[in-house]
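Run log, item B.
One chain of 183 residues. Sequence copied directly from the ordering sheet:
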Amino acid sequence: MDRIKVLIAKPGLDGHDRGAKIVAKYLRDAGMEVIYTGLRQSPETIVNTAVQEDVSVVGLSILSGAHTQLCRKIMSVYREKGITPPPMFLGGIIPAADVPELKQIGIAEVFPPGTPLERIAARCRSATSSTRFAIGDQTRKICITRWLKRGRFVTRGQDSPGSFGARGRRGCNSRRTTLGKPC
């Protein structure tokens, strides 16, 4: 079965990343592949990284109060590129009054401070399970249209280059980790 690939990003000028790192570590320990982009990422960088890494879920951590503007910008970058965004989750100090507007923008779930980590992992699994289907006794991810749009039709196994952090540190300041081992 394919591993769930999660991108954790800190858009904007917010410099507090403890919560994002805790969520990233928990999701990694829960068996997901996690890519952490680091602090102060632009919406364009986040979308480009998500597309390049072909992630299943994007998690945003925003504490600066600019969550609505940043989420709108990220979704507009996806629209400009003509790509359907993966399920996007948002964590941080988000007023309850802003949640309906964020969901209308396209954010699948908003996690306020104190949300149990198990709930975040379960929501990542449920969001990605809706994009999977069974063929015989195997479960495959529906990526055919994404592969065709990118001009290639390939699969990557667990031991192939480029999967599970074989490239380590990247120019975009992202950090891949897998099963407790930094790459």
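Observations after the first pass:
- Residues 67-81 form the longest helix (15 residues).
- The beta strands are 5-9, 33-36, 57-62, 88-92, 107-111, 132-135, 138-141, 175-178, 181-182.
Flagged for discussion on Thursday.
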